[in-house]
Amino acid sequence: MKKFVCLFIIFFAVVFNCIAQEYQEVVYLKNGNVIRGFLIELVPDDYLDIRTGSGRVRTIDMYD
Fold it and tell me: Which residue spans within 1-46 are E strands per DSSP?
């Protein structure tokens, strides 16, 4: 019975961890740079805000 309860708890911990993950976006700039992070805001034909892995928020012009 204890094994069943432990397996049940581990199963749900893994499932909730997979659901809680955010998807990382990749932005390719015209100058060849690549920026990876989480998309915060996207304004079509204007700019986008992306949070990098270091926690820094970058605003990128859409024409870049």
Answer: 25-28, 34-43
- What's the full length of the chain, in residues? 64
- Residue position matching structure tokens 């060849």: 32
List pLDDT tens digits, range 3-46.
Answer: 666 676 776 666 655 555 556 788 899 999 999 888 888 888 88
Q: Which of 31, 32, 25 is nearest to 49 (CA)?
A: 25
Whole-angstrom distance, CA of residue 40 vs CA of residue 50? 5
Fold type of domain 22-64: SH3 type barrels. (2.30.30)
Helix, strand, or coil (residue 31): coil
List 34's β-bridge partners, or say none: 28
Query: Which structure tokens are listed for 11?
Result: 């199963």
